[in-house]
Amino acid sequence: MPWWWKKKKADKSSLSITPRDEERIASKVDLGALAPPLADYLATACSLQHALAAKLSTLSGGAWGSEDADDLGLAAGWAMDRYRRLREVLEDYVEDVPAALAGPRDRLATHLDRMESARWYEGVGTVYVVTGFTRDFWHRLAEGFAPEITTLLQGILADTGDEDVMAGVLERFLAVDARYSSRLSLWCRRLVGDTILICRDGLSEASMARADAEVRLEPVLTDVVALHTKRLDRLGLTA
Q1: Calpha distance 239→188 (Å, rounded)
Q2: All structural domains of the chain
Q3: What is the pLDDT along the chain (239 residues), one digit of tens a residue?
Q4: What does 19-73 look like in DSSP terms, one character per residue?
Q5: What pTM, to 2 d.p., does this model score?
């Protein structure tokens, strides 16, 4: 059995992948076939939450008003809380947490570098899109694990208010001058491709090497893109 399926601590039970649920309506795909080893799932999720926390903190420091600074600071804290909780779980599955995070961190940095903008409001748009899109994706990917692990991971990843506060920051900004809406809408559309690449990095390498990988992945992405569209509709932006 590969080492990544074994917990470092022997007093906890081992995990198994859940079988396909033929009654599932949402994605209609065997998520167990797409999910990576749990240690890899946790490492990529940890790296993402850490990066989002850092970006939100920077945006909070550069905010134009105290309300925006406070809201973005809260969102940064919630992302860091998720990072800490995921990291605690990861400690049970790897001997060296920093080493496990190194690869996902480097891959993520490559994607995020392409999403950088000198415009503060586009930076807020980036964290709003990436936070929601990746949360929805990793939430579904967690269904590929045993039920108790699925519940744990989905609970950690749950929205604790960050979506509302980020949306509020953008709504206040757009209320100042509606002409920014078209530019922000274009920016958010540009982000989708790179955000999907971030999600693909979280998948099992073996599953993505299969000839039918794209067919398996398409229903999951369709679900996630639909939720992304609703998220932008809330702001009056076109997805």
Answers
A1: 7
A2: 28-233 (1.20.1260.10)
A3: 333 334 544 434 334 333 434 334 344 566 777 889 999 999 999 999 999 999 999 999 999 899 999 999 999 999 999 999 999 999 999 999 999 999 999 999 999 999 999 999 999 999 999 999 999 999 999 998 999 999 999 999 999 999 999 999 999 999 988 889 999 999 999 999 999 999 998 887 777 677 676 777 888 888 999 999 999 999 999 76
A4: PP-TT--SS-S-HHHH---HHHHHHHHHHHHHHHHHHHHHHHHT-SSHHHHHHHH
A5: 0.85
